[in-house]
Amino acid sequence: MSYQNFSREQMQAMDAAHHLHPFTDHADLRAAGSRIITRADGPYVYDALGNEILDAMAGLWCVNAGYGRKELVDAATAQLEELPYYNSFFRCTTPTPALLADRLARIAPDHINQVFFGSSGSEANDTALRLVRHYWALEGRPEKNIVISRDWAYHGSTIAATSLGGMAAMHEQLYGAVPNIRHVMCPYAFELAEPGESDRDFGLRAAKAVEDAIVEAGPDNVAAFIGEPIQGAGGVKIPPASYWPEIQRICDRYDVLLMLDEVITGYGRTGEWFAAQSMDIAPDTITTAKGLTSGYQPLSALLVGDRIAKTLVDKGGEFYHGYTYSGHPVACAVALANLEIIEREGLIDRVREDTGPYLGEALTAGIGDHPLVGEVRTFGLLAGIEIVKDRDTRARFEPEGHAASVVRDHAIEGGLMMRAVMDTMILSPPLIWTRETIDTAVDRIRAALDKAA
Ligand code: PLP
C-alpha cells in the first residue's frame, strides 16, 4: 500500500485519529495538523505540500551522513535478502554485529574494546545503568550504587533513562523513579555563572557540585557519574573547557565510574569520532546510537571500557540482560556502511577543521548582534542560540519558551528546520553541510529572527 494513494488531508486525519506522537500535546497537534514529511535528499527534507526544507536538525540529531544514501539502502537490502534476522543470544552471532563491534573497538578510545548493542539510546542507557551497578556488585561492593546525574540531562524516555535524566517536566510524569539517582547543577554558564565569574571558574564550580554530591553520599556509595559531553536536548549547553578534565579528576579521586552519553555527540559531530576524544577524557562507558546508522536503522551501541568488561567476563557468569534486537544484522550492516561513508568522505576532519569553526563564525557574524540574540555558542556541528528580550540584562520573554517557538515556526516557514528548547534555538545539522549550506541556514535564521522581533 503506497501513501501516494492518499491525500495529505486523509493522512492527517488518520494520524490525528490513531497516532499517539512522542513528546506531543495531542490537542494542539489535532488543531494544527501534522506536517507530513514524505521524502528527503542530501541536506533537505520535503513535506507533503512539496516544500523543500533545509534540515538543520539532521532529523533528530541523527542523520549524520545526510539523506538519500543509496549505499545504505543497498547494505540494508543485501542483508535483508541474505539474513533478515537472527539473534546473538545463546552462543550465536551473525556476521555484521561481530564486524561492527570490531570496527567500533578500533575507533573508540584505546581502553574501550567491548560493545553491547540495543535499538535505541534509551535502551543503551538502561543497559549502562544496570551494568555499572552490576560491576560494583561483582566487585563485592553492592552498596556502591548511587549514580550522579545533572539537571537538564536527557538520557531517554524509558523509566530508567528518564530517572537518569534531569528534565523537571519528565520527572513530574515519572510516577516512581528508579532509586539512588541524584542530580546536580549542569554547566550552563549563560544562566548560572555569577556576574564577573570567569568561564574557567564557572566550569570548576559546576564540577565541584559533582564532587560535593559524591562526598555527601559517601564515595563508598557512589557507582558512577553520567553526563552528555554537551547537553543536547537540554539546550546545547556547552561546558567550559575546565569542566570535563575536572570531572575526570574527581571520578578518579573517588573511584567513581565515568559514564558518557554520546547519543548526540558520537560519530563525528564534535570533530572526532567521539566527544571523549575531543575533550580528552577516558570514560568507562560511552552510550551511542543515532549517528551510528545516520538514523537509517534503529541501533544503539554501549561502548564498554576494559575495566568493566574484564570484571564482567572474569567474574560475571551470565549477565541477565538483552534485547531481541541486540545486534540486529540489518541495522549493523547499515552501521558498517555508514561508518565507511563518514570515514571515506572525511566528514569528521571537515567538521573539526572547516565546517565546525565556520558555523561558529557565520552565526556570530550573521546573527550575533541581533536584538533577540543573547548568546551564540557552538562546538563542532552543534549550536545553541539564546533568545532574549534584553541583551544586556538577559531578561527573557514571557511565557517561557514562547519566543523561541515563534522563531522556530518562522524558520520552518522560511525553509529551515530548527528546534526550540525553552528559550534556546538549536542546530545539529548533517555532517555533509558545506560552508554554502551554513550561509543559507544563517540567512534563514536571520530572516526568522527579524520576523519575530
Ligand atoms: N541520550 C541522549 C543524549 C539523547 O539525546 C537521546 C535522544 O535524543 C537519548 C539518549 C535517547 O535516545 P533514543 O531516543 O534513541 O532512545
Automatic annotation (TrEMBL):
GO terms for cellular component: cytosol. It comes from the Eukaryota. GO terms for molecular function: pyridoxal phosphate binding; transaminase activity. InterPro entries: Aminotrans_3, PyrdxlP-dep_Trfase, PyrdxlP-dep_Trfase_major, PyrdxlP-dep_Trfase_small. The keyword Zinc does not apply. It holds the Pfam family Aminotran_3. The keyword Transferase applies. Keywords: Aminotransferase, Pyridoxal phosphate, Transferase. NCBIfam families: PRK06105.1, PRK07480.1. Belongs to the class-III pyridoxal-phosphate-dependent aminotransferase family. This is Aspartate aminotransferase family protein. The lineage of its organism: Eukaryota, Sar, Alveolata, Dinophyceae, Suessiales.
